[in-house]
Amino acid sequence: MLSEHKDRGRWNTKLGFVLAAAGSAVGLGNIWGFPTQVADNGGASFILIYIICCLAVGLPVMIAEFAIGRHTRRNPVGAFKKLGNGWFPPLIGIWGVICGVMILTFYMVIAGWTFSYIFEELFYFTGLTALSEWFGDLQNGVKNAIFTILFMTGTVAIINGGVSNGIERATKTMMPILILVLIIMIGYVMTLEGSSEGLKMYLLPDFSLVDTGLVFSALGQAFFSLSLGMGALLTYGSYLKRNQNIVESATYVTVADMSIAFLAGLLIIPAMFVAQSAGITIMGEDGRLFSSATLVFDVLPDMFKAMGGMFGLIFGMAFFILLSMAALTSTISLLEVPVSYIIDEHKIARKKASLIVGSIVVTVSLVISFNIDLIDVFATIFNNVGLPLGGLMLSIFLAYFWKTENAVAELRHGYSDVDNGKFPLIWGVFIKYICPVLIALVLITTLYNLIF
Ligand code: PHE
Description:
It is a multi-pass membrane protein. InterPro entries: Na/ntran_symport, SNS_sf, YocR/YhdH-like. By secondary structure, the chain is an all-alpha fold. The protein has one domain (about 5-450): Up-down Bundle (Amino acid/polyamine transporter I), CATH 1.20.1740. The chain is built from 17 helices and no strands. It has helices spanning about 15-25, 30-40, 45-70, 75-85, 90-125, 130-135, 140-160, 165-190, 195-205, 210-225, 230-235, 245-275, 290-305, 310-345, 350-370, 375-410, 425-450. The longest helix is centred in the last third of the chain and has 39 residues, at about 375-410. The structure holds phenylalanine (PHE). Phenylalanine binds near residues 29, 103 and 230.
């Protein structure tokens, strides 16, 4: 049996763990993915279906990831290897590590954009237009490469600090700031002309638009946004103490992630319509809102510019600082998966492990920096197919190989009355039947649409 490496860490506090996991979940998926999906799919009806997907599929799978992680105290590959024999169990972990590395390669480039836009705004408002344009050019490979490397350096630095001194400390500082900035920005946008039209689009449901396609996009979005299917939360769970209530923590993380996605929509969709009243085009000829990249990196900066002066400067910079922080707390968790794998399985020290994986990821990111069309290709393979596939294998493994009774026994630590009430029964039904069937349907539909 593998011995526990000294570089394996532990969370310091219960809240620290919840914030770190929420930090992983809250990312670009919430702040630019969710609002555009809502806008594309008819507003409030999408929100409702999204909430159901998070609670009915996301939450049970998250509990499963935390339980497997804490029970085995291993990275995803070691965890599944410890719980089952044969080729299937480690494959789930290996798939997770691959998805982690590959998602990170393009996520880093987008994170680099959010970071460079802080300077784009700063230089615009201080009158240095040429510099502002350089920082705002998404196609500029050299600039993309520089910011990707900077972002990776920041991520590696935090990972090097270890679990409690690095990840926990960084996320504990960033998450409250992120929520505060978001709320202040929403408050201000609500006072601007045009915002009420956006609010209407965001909050009034149009159920005629609900079809199976919409349900499946909501489920895919929930998976990505909750960081499920690749073992990121399994890895975070492996640093948990036995006295923490996993079911309660997972519920907090899910609710926090949904709430921040909701708040992000409350900012972005009204802001789009504010931009429209300022004469900025927000929709294509087909009547659909622009894609998320255009919205975030064209329309919103234009809106900040239309605000002008001090407000434009402050809000412009604050928005991209917010996005960068959200991205950073997610890149940390994406990198932690392969790093923990190398620490556990190859007995390499944390700093060296993060340097090795960081360099490999950055090499691929550099290629993407110069060929940004690759982002879509990678996202389709690893977000839309990779994560549901991982989640499907994970729930099948838990329900039919490791067995829910064993998982429930793990959940009993820190939640002694797990058996009072119907928890084991209800969670069992979800993880055995509802989650695998729904995830498989999403996967099949996605593959079908890709092929035909
Ligand atoms: N949940 C993150 C987001 O919303 C992305 C992510 C996916 C992070 C998978 C870790 C694992 O942006």
